[in-house]
Amino acid sequence: MTDFAISPEALQTQITETLGAKAKSVTLALGEVTVIVAAPDYLEVATMLRDAPGCRFEQLIDLCGMDYVDYREGEWQGERFCVVTHLLSVSLNQRVRLKVFVPNEDLPVIDSLTGIWNAAGWFEREAFDLYGIVFEGHDDLRRLLTDYGFIGHPFRKDFPVSGHVEMRYDAEQKRVIYQPVSIEPREITPRVIREDNYGGGLH
């Protein structure tokens, strides 16, 4: 491993030259480089970032989904769902963020990165579970954090806070059962209590 990384500006230039027209954008903010690619180029760009001499991002260290509904108070006009991946080059001591927006809000499908980085497996299962993003080519795409009977995807911004169903132990049936949520939504108004002479007794 190298003792130092190249500057973020140099990395931005390196990635821009490596990916060429395959990158929709290569931006630098807060010292971090972010690459945005179109869905059809996702696998090819990921492979280039792993293998190109000036990139060599051997490790996938994180992958998550994002829901852009109501992003920036409704100003967002792009696709609703995005997959964000963070890559690390151990050999060159550098990092990059890779983003791809997933087509089709009703059935968001994107290629799986498991054939490039094995570590993507559980991360993609989590994004599928929480956001409903389908990763084509993943050989074991099933829920990871929620229960098998769970309805919906809880990190979507339109998912109800109380959920759709609740589970409890039924003493008569001697097992855990599922039933519709019985919690009544309510607004909570905080009560403000002030002492006499609040503010030092100034009038």
Could you list some keywords that capture this structure?
single chain, alpha/beta, 203 residues, 3 helices, 9 strands, two-stranded parallel ribbon, Beta Polymerase, domain 2, extended, five-stranded mixed β-sheet
Description:
By secondary structure, the chain is an alpha/beta fold. It has a domain at 8-140: NADH:ubiquinone oxidoreductase Nqo5 subunit (Beta Polymerase, domain 2). Helix content is 17%, strand content 29%. The protein is built from 3 helices and 9 strands; from the N terminus they run H-E-E-H-E-E-E-E-H-E-E-E. It has helices spanning 8-19, 42-51, 120-131; strands at 23-29, 32-37, 59-67, 81-89, 94-102, 109-111, 134-136, 165-170, 175-180. The strands form 3 sheets. Strands 1-2-5-4-3 form a 5-stranded mixed beta sheet. Strand 1 and strand 2 form a beta hairpin. The longest helix has 12 residues, at 8-19. The radius of gyration is 23 Å and the shape is extended. The mean pLDDT is 87.
| Mean pLDDT rating | 87
The CATH superfamily of the domain at 8-140 bears the name NADH:ubiquinone oxidoreductase Nqo5 subunit
- The outline comes out as extended
CA gyration radius, whole angstroms: 23 Å
Detail the poorly predicted runs. Answer: none
In which range does the helix fraction lie?
10-25%
Structural class by sheet pairing and helices: alpha/beta
Give the number of DSSP strands: 9
Report the β-strand fraction as a percent range. 25-35%
Please report the number of helical segments. Answer: 3
Q: Which fold name is given in CATH as the topology of the domain at 8-140?
A: Beta Polymerase, domain 2
Q: Widest sheet: strand order?
A: 1-2-5-4-3
**Main β-sheet, in a few words?**
5 strands, mixed
